[in-house]
Design a protein that fits this description.
This protein is an alpha+beta fold and about 170 residues long. The chain is about 45% helix and about 20% strand. A 5-stranded antiparallel sheet has the order 2-1-5-4-3. The chain is rod-shaped and about 115 Å long.
Length: about 170
Amino acid sequence: LDDALLARLQTQSVLPKTIELVSREGKGWRVLASGASKIPVAAALGAGGASLPVQARLVDVDGREYLAQAVYLNRARSSGEVAAVLAYSVDEALQPYRAVATAWAGLLGFGLLAGVFGATWIARRVSQPVEQLAASARRIAAGDYSESPRVQSGDEIGALASAFASM
């Protein structure tokens, strides 16, 4: 089994992009074959000659995170340990979700802007007639009855302006 055969097997199956066949050599691990990607996951996973974990474990290789585990292969009594190290890039696994996160962030931003503009418009629409009535009340309190309030509204504010005009 060599690099070319392992790479061909990867294209014909669902093997991960990062796979290495390794054997124990002294206190470390020697790569017998690696697939299409030449990322040294086994060296990072079995650093210092430690046995390779059979449970998935997060490992950092060249600043990128991989979820990796070893699968020990059956062996003859005369041969040493041989394992297949399978690894999945965390970045590649999360790639499809980045578009969703970007879309949600865009929708959240749009909703926030629409909310701010809507609240500002409603506040101005409510506060402007109230301010006009307050100005009319201050003018009437000062003794100036020459001009009636000019609030054109069909709600409670309009009814109050109409009452002021009648007074």
